Every structure is written in C-alpha cells, then in structure tokens.
C-alpha cells in the first residue's frame, strides 16, 4: 500500500464518526422542525454538543484521530473558503472604513484590557499575553502564533489553549441568547459574533442559526479581526526582549506569511473577489452553499469531539478567571462599539 493511500485510509474511521454524529444532528433538527415548527437548536450546535458528550464519555482510539483532525481542520477550512463565494466586495464597501477601524480598535482595546486583567490576577507576563491575544484575536491560532515570538513556556501554552477550547464552544452556544436581550438586528448580531467568537469557523456555528446576513457580516468582521494577528505578532516580536525573564538572546522569532494569514482566509478573499467579478457560475453558487453547510456541520462534530468537558477541572483557577473576565470585557467593548460608533 502506497503512503498516499495509507494516509487516505487512515482518515476513514474518524471521518465516518464525524459524519455519523452530523447525521444524528441533522435528524434531531428535522425532528425539532416537525414537532415545533422551527429548529430551536440548529444541527451545527447539536453536532458540537453530541461530539463533546461522546468525547467526554468515550475516548476515541488512535484510529479515529487522523480523521477527526482532518474534519476539524481541513474540512472546516474548506467550508470557510467556500463561504467567500456568498459575499461580494460590494458588501465590504457597504461595511465601510468606520467598521474596519472599529474592528482594529476593538482588538487593541481588548488586548490591553485582557492583559491588565491577567496581571491583576498575578498571572505571569507571558501567560497574560497569551490569554490576551487568544481572547482578542482568534483563540488557539493566536496563542500558537504568539507563543514562539514571546518564547512562552509549553505549560503556559497548554493551559491557555485548554480553556479556550471549552470556552469557545460555550460562547458559540450562548451568544445567540443575547439577540432578544439586546434587540439586535441580524447585521448587528453578525458584528457582535465577528468581534467576540474565537475562531473563524466557530462564527459559522454562532451565526448560521440566525440568518445568512448575520453569517456573512460575522465572517467578514471576523476575517478582518484575524488579519490583525500579523501586526500583533510583529509588535510582540519587538517587545519580547523587555518581557520578564528574557534571555540575552533577543532575536525575534519570525513567522512565515502563511502562519500569520492562513490559506483559508486567502481562499475566502479570493472567492469573494471572483464572486464580485462575476467569474463564479450560478450553479456553483447554488450548490456551494449546501456544501458549506454540510462541511460545517461535519467539522463542528469534529470540534466537539476535541472537547473533553473534564478538562475544565484541570485548568488553574486564575487562568479560568482571567479568560472569563477577558471575554466579558471583549463583549462589553464590542457592544459599546456597535451602539456608540454606529456599527451596523
């Protein structure tokens, strides 16, 4: 058996598990629609919940891991890239410069506020930076990108990522509950989700149950927020020599372009440009929306399978408190920007 064929066959068990969970989630949504007239909990969310329960009660064996990782990463990234076909540059022009500036401002304020919270709780400086960047930009991806730049300990990285994985799912599940409380339109909720949800793919899970407008705007806002990772990494590399316990080796750790700007963001932007130029056939636009939803549900099942609810008890109390307070501060900053700067 060739190496390529073996890699493909290794993906089968985990991928089938994710598809099976997705199928159950879709059936559950159909049952909701039949009995209540509408899906109160979408298949996307149900897939995450089922995956988390399965992961907590049943530890998938090594045979499942390659497929689970493939669905959680590659399938998810393909879904995000395809979503770009549903958005045109006209949408970005409609958002306007004030929104883009506000997104950058929200990220900067959130990093500063989160860092101050972490230090007030006596977290080590590097740990406080990891929590601040992960909370303010894009969760685990930001933590992984910033960690080598500031020379963070592996234990700090693991602790930061452990809680982010669980809290990210909680945010996806709970954020839609704020719509009636805040009386938000789809556009306003899309901005809120884009500013507060950790990962680009998780924005899909948080916004798709609300509507296509919320999904489009939320994804657009989130992508602009993720693009802030490049300037933040460069800034951290310049400040790294001043951090506590820095060694005499003050050389900055440079990251390649694809680490700061993942391929699926480039793909999303490319699809958006092609859509704006009218170069995407109508039949592809029709079917790509269904493929995007299907891939997203499968990837949400995989993300759920990566969340062991018991991990929550293993994370230090100060880290837990810092992440929760930082998320609360990010939420406050986002709501303030929406209301006082006239977003959406």
Automatic annotation (TrEMBL):
Highest taxon in the source lineage: Bacteria
Main location as per UniProt: membrane
Pfam families recorded: Cons_hypoth698 (PF03601)
Bilayer-spanning residue ranges: 12-31, 37-58, 70-89, 95-117, 129-150, 162-182, 189-214, 220-240, 261-281, 287-307, 319-341
InterPro entries in the record: UPF0324_pro (IPR018383)
Protein name: YeiH family protein
Sorted UniProt keywords: Cell membrane, Membrane, Transmembrane, Transmembrane helix
Family according to the record: Belongs to the UPF0324 family.
Subcellular location: Cell membrane
Entry membrane topology: Multi-pass membrane protein
